[in-house]
Amino acid sequence: MASLFIDSIRKNYGPTSVLRGVSLSIADGEFLTLLGPSGCGKSTLLRILAGLEVQDAGSISIGGRTVDELRPKRRDVAMVFQSYALYPHMTVASNMALPLRMRRLSAIQRLPLLGRLLPGTARIAAEVDIEVTRTANSLGIGHLLARKPVQLSGGQRQRVAVARAMVRHPAVFLMDEPLSNLDAKLRVQMRAEIKELHQRLGCTFVYVTHDQAEAMTLSDRVAVMLDGQLLQVAAPQDIYADPADRRVAEFIGSPKINMLDCVVRERGSIDVAGSTLAIDAEVLPGVPLTLGIRPEALHPADHGGQGALTGSVLSIEHMGSDLFVHLDLAGVDDPLIVRLPADRASHIAPGQTLHVGVRPDRVLLFGRDGQRLRREVESGRASVTPIREIAR
Ligand SMILES: Nc1ncnc2c1ncn2[C@@H]1O[C@H](COP(=O)(O)OP(=O)(O)OP(=O)(O)O)[C@@H](O)[C@H]1O
Ligand SMILES: [Mg+2]
């Protein structure tokens, strides 16, 4: 087990700056997920941690030891790749044994014929076999040891890749989108297995994904990455409810958070989409801001005007227990999305005018630079006061 310390890592490929000063401290035993869109630099950072790629600047420590000069196999990390990277000509047992054989046997001992005759080889090989079998059994793949990768399902290959990482008892697991080649149902099942594995082993996991559901369900903390920089590192619920930056708010959550241009009218009220909301921005009147509100923080109101938004229903998406109402607000380009429990929305139909109340405590305000404006309500002093109770 080990903590991990990433200090100001930079990496360029030619003129392209892929990592632009990434710093992150990961606790011993923590499950940390790097979450970000395709191409933001997640795999590059993971490969630098593993020692498969060299950074241009910055430093990595694992378990209090600087590892910048260490080769991958001396870093005490194991990596599970998206492609699984299993050797197709080898059996599951041989694939799993390989990292142990590489570590425990000398180059001569690994020679196919001569190696077997050398003293100690047989004993070490037997120990490796025992460890491979034990690990395979613990992941429920003991019966597959004699098969080749081509004879396995996607889920089984994924388990073999994890098992191969596990046999070495690494201090840190690095996993690069290990579930992305699986179908949706299997992905959910394997997600639970990875979580269980982390709890059982208790070692540090750094997990890369662009799937926010994976990040939110697996992680102790999520590091949101964009364009080679970390925008926010926090617990999943804080990333969702308390984003530091507009880009984080927009990347997390499905359907996306609603973003509306607004202007501070006076202390305690904001003009947005033809309505006035009782929200204290603590910004001078006339300052343009962006108001973010998640679809579930909106609900039908009795009438429009102060405290509620009014629009015309464009369409309704039925999702089973919930539905998403798309609302056209005057002067706003994108439809406002409202998430409602299906049993409370049976009266809503396309073309109809709908008033929706806004939960002031769920409003997120962003400056035009994208930075979140912190409001006093978050420091315990409730400066957000509804003009009137919003009809439920
Ligand atoms: N060896 C390389 N040479 C040149 N450019 C590279 C190299 N490896 C990665 N890149 C570029 O660096 C950027 C980051 O790549 P990286 O693989 O780290 O992204 P990622 O976040 O893992 O994306 P994905 O989710 O698609 O896997 C991309 O623009 C990619 O094209
Ligand atoms: Mg990648």
Summarize the structure.
The chain is 24% helix and 31% strand. It contains nine helices and 21 strands. It is elongated and about 90 Å long.
Ligand catalogue: adenosine-5'-triphosphate, magnesium ion
**Structural domain count:** 2
Largest sheet: 6 strands, mixed
Estimate the strand proportion: 25-35%
Poorly predicted regions are 377-392
Structural class: alpha+beta
Mind telling me the CATH class of the largest domain? Answer: Alpha Beta
What name does CATH use for the topology of the largest domain?
Rossmann fold
Shape field:
elongated
State the order of secondary-structure elements, H for helix, E for strand. EEEHEEEHHHHEHEHEEHHEEEEEEEEEEE
| Rg, Cα atoms, Å | 26 Å
Average pLDDT metric: 89
Quickly give the CATH architecture of the largest domain. Answer: 3-Layer(aba) Sandwich
Number of helices: 9
Strand order of the largest sheet: 6-7-8-3-9-10
**How many beta-strand segments?**
21
